[in-house]
Amino acid sequence: MSDDNKETAGSQGPRGEGEPRERVIGTPSPARDKALLAEDDISAPAGSGEQLDEQSARRAERTVALLFLLAFAASVAFIAYYIGWSGRNGGMHGILRAQESNFWLGGTMAAAFLLLAAGVTIWVRRLMTSKPITQERHELTTDAETRAAFTQDFLEGAADSGLTKRPLLRRTLLLAAAPLGLAPLVLLRDLGPLPEKRLRHTHWGEAVEKAKAEGKKGVRLVVDGTHKPLRVSDFATPGSMITVLPEGMEEDVPEHDVLTETAKAVTILINVPESQFKPAEGRENWHVNGIVAYSKVCTHVGCPAALYEQTTHHILCPCHQSTFDATDAAKVIFGPAARPLPQLPLSVEDGYLVATSDFPEPIGPSFWERG
Amino acid sequence: MSDTTAPKAIEGSLGFIDERLGSTSFLKRNVKKVFPDHWSFMLGEIALYSFIILLLTGTFLTLWFKPSMIEVVYDGSYDQLKGVKMSEAYASTLHISFDVRGGLLMRQIHHWAAILFMASILAHMLRVFFTGAYRKPRELNWLIGITMFILGMLEGLFGYSLPDDLLSGTGLRITQGVLEAIPVVGTYGYMFLFGGEFPGTDIVPRMYMLHILLIPGIILALVTAHMMIMWHQKHTAMPVKNQTEKQVYGYPFYPVFMAKTGAYFLFTFGVLALMGAFFQINPIWLFGPYDPGAISAGSQPDWYMGVLEGSLRLMPGWETNLWGHTISWNVLIPAAIPLGIIFGGAMAWPFLEQWVTGDRRQHHVNDRPRNAPVRTGIGMAAVTFYGLMWLAGANDVIAEKFHVSLFATTWFFRVTIFVGPVIAYIVTKRICLGLQRKDADTLGHGVESGIITMSPDGKFAERHEPAKEEERAKLLAKENARPAAPAKDAQGIPAPSSKGPMGHLRARLNRAWNIDDIPVEEHGHDNGHGEHAEVEEGTESKESKELRS
Prior knowledge:
Order of helices and strands of chain B: HHEHEEHHHHHHEHHHEEHHHHEEHHHH
Family (chain A): Belongs to the Rieske iron-sulfur protein family.
Transmembrane segments (chain A): 64-83, 103-124
Helix content of chain A: 25-40%
Radius of gyration of chain B: 29 Å
Oligomer: heterodimer
Strand order of the largest sheet of chain A: 10-5-4-3-2-12-11
Domain Rieske (chain A): 291-355
Subcellular location (chain A): Cell membrane
Protein name (chain A): Cytochrome bc1 complex Rieske iron-sulfur subunit
């Protein structure tokens, strides 16, 4: 059927032998090239069949061999580059050498794999003479006889063991097994401490207590990174935001805990124009001329709420876009967070900004016991 | 059979093993095992090979990586971070990238392979779903596959959290926040995982153990089971000629499939090496070490976690506070519900479908997606749901690139995750039915030949030719809807399966499954009917050839 489709008849009558073929005028039938008239149902190996055309096979063989040779060359180049160039002048150093080495090692490696893969593909498609074959699909289900025989064996075994006949044996065995399954779980208890009240306070509390014990009003706020204490006059431009920590944290906290304490105590200080600032009820004196401090840890899932939009006074958490209003006690105005950012009470002492107590509520994401 | 002898070396080693294991009968049975051919059967192979590449490159990385949170001062060859305090984990990752030859390449191949691993599993699962290849007897492999995808998500999350750079630390922080939100046991889970408060010093070594030992071990075991079950049950086949429920048609494992799949492994490795060499991924040296107070905008996880990120972003800030206890719906719902629906639904689906259709037979020949419109529609609804949620995970990037309001993108996704799947279901089902009609038409009327003929009374008609035999075999593979069993027998006694609310529900769902079905039926080659009947009448193929000009 497909053979006569290929014919390009030009005249009505049957063509004479040797008559030159005329070209088709008009639209060729779409049926020829549409997949609707299905191609051979199985695609590979395409070139091969029972019989290979020896000439084209030899051509294919040469192509495959060439690809294999190139793959060989690429692998050799990989090794040569590694030994000869990558490690020159005492090994790899810095970003430029890393980049160069990455390009060459990766490039030769990719070339080796891809050339080999291309070679094998051509080999399969052009040189292998396997024919498609048919195999039976066996019934997966076991026949009833075997199943019955197994059931009998199983019940027999159960009876022989006495497990079915002796309930005391059975029940005590189960009893013995139950705690044995639980025991490994108990072993995991020492993975970590119990939560207790850990999540309810931050290092600000300890730092304020320490400062008060020394007769001061509160603990100074230092800039994250430089540890420089902040004067009110340093932070006079409305619209700016800065990240602060309690003074002396680096010294007071054991070294391996610094990061953990920072993760809780990290606070943002914002200078909101005083005219627009609406202090929350009961917190009228927690700000200093519109300078206000909120926990930087987002109340959604704890990312740092690090973006501040000066004109709208919005604090935005870049992770999930919870948006808080800095002028209005950091209330949520958009996004998935449910609670405002906790506020840190501020005051002034000797011209420096100080915190007068810990955050009044747990910072960060909500948890079951939070209340 | 015994008159053929292999070369001595092969005969010798085969004999050695056979005398000890009796393995030749196994080899004889399997050496020519037939593998049906279809391009989509390669998707699972990509996943398998990516996994092998992950094991190889991962092992290389463990030789230098130090899973430790001990603070060190960096003194490697990356000048920009010299003298910076950082964890040993981050410092050793920098060391692998800049001071170990081929280290950066292995890191990048490892990361790309992880991304490809998850992507190819997803593509493979979609192929299996839309062709109905999960049907009996293959439900177990379907469940194993979903389990591997979930484990892969966890494995990936732990993997990209290991370097302790700024981005990975942010991901961990979110993980911690989500963990904390679990009612009753949340804070305990958090303390136990991190060995205290976030970030502490235990989390990296713990994740390292899970990432290089426990989870890959489980995945490896599941991969093995997956392959053995597939081998034992034989591969499904697409409905083409010669493929039936009783036989499988294709090329033999040895040598054709073996060579093809070997080449495929090389292609996968080659492409990943190419990507590792030329496409930068996760440049941790640009992010800097983790600092709990810092973050960069556009913080996105690897793609397979995007759906969780998106659902977290879309949720409104709901929280309840009752009797001194807080429940964060704004975290719990997005963390559990969307993926719960998708994975739970996918796991239950084969059994649900069996219950609705009442089809408990074994299937080895796949459905064409159009021939199961309800399944295909629901699949596309799930794809839409997942896809929108996934896109929402990058709503800040979308807002920035397309200059739209961030809040508008959030609201767009909040609405479309509900509306989108419904539209997708309706559209997909209609497309499937349209394609079914076309198939029925092809069988009934043949294929348009492009030849217009004029009948003696001046009527124009297009000649239709019968479809090729292969095409007809494909179209006829469709199983027409079987009428539902009557709810009541002749005596008016309701069938047990149709009683009660569940029975009614089942009957309704069964009707919905079958109602639109467009049956295909065998037509003779020559007796067409309809508008082209008069053309074909009395015309033989030879004449038709002449008519064409």
